[in-house]
């Protein structure tokens, strides 16, 4: 690849700013019930392994509200893609996520 490494020009997770997933411009893609991101290899046995933790957003989270986009009844209207138009404050579990304990995905 022209003498470069796959992934060159992409930042390492540890080099991203704190709470980078809550920053303006970040995009999320709705996966329709799949916990397997497109850009991540995760062995199938992880889905049934109780020791593998999935990150769950709390309903009072600003990120949850942006992704959910609730209607007047409080039912979620998930869009295929959500791009943050402002920086969001972290809530509960989100505040403990850092660059070394998260996965970074680039398309």
Index terms:
6% strand, little secondary structure, 107 residues, two-stranded antiparallel sheet, disordered C terminus
Description:
This protein is largely without helices or strands. It has one helix spanning 62-68; strands at residues 27-29, 81-83. It has a domain at 18-31 and 46-102. The longest helix has 7 residues, at 62-68. The chain is globular and about 55 Å long.
Question: Helices and strands in order, then pairings?
Answer:
Layout lengths: L26 E3 L32 H7 L12 E3 L24
Antiparallel strand pairs: 1-2
Characterize the overall form: globular
The description of the largest β-sheet is: 2 strands, antiparallel
Helix fraction by DSSP (H/I, runs of at least 4): under 10%
Strand content: 5-15%
SS content category: little secondary structure
Distance between the termini: 18 Å
Stretches where pLDDT is under 50 for at least 5 consecutive residues are 100-107
């Amino acid at each position: 690849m022209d003498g470069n490494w796959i992934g060159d020009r992409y930042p390492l997770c540890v080099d991203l700013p704190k709470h980078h997933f809550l920053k303006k411009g970040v995009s999320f893609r709705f996966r329709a019930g799949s916990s397997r991101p497109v850009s991540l290899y995760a062995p199938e046995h992880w889905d049934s392994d109780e020791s593998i933790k999935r990150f769950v957003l709390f309903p009072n989270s600003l990120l949850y509200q942006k992704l959910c986009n609730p209607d007047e009844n409080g039912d979620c209207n998930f869009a295929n893609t959500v791009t943050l138009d402002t920086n969001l404050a972290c809530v509960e579990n989100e505040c403990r996520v850092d660059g070394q304990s998260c996965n970074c995905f680039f398309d």
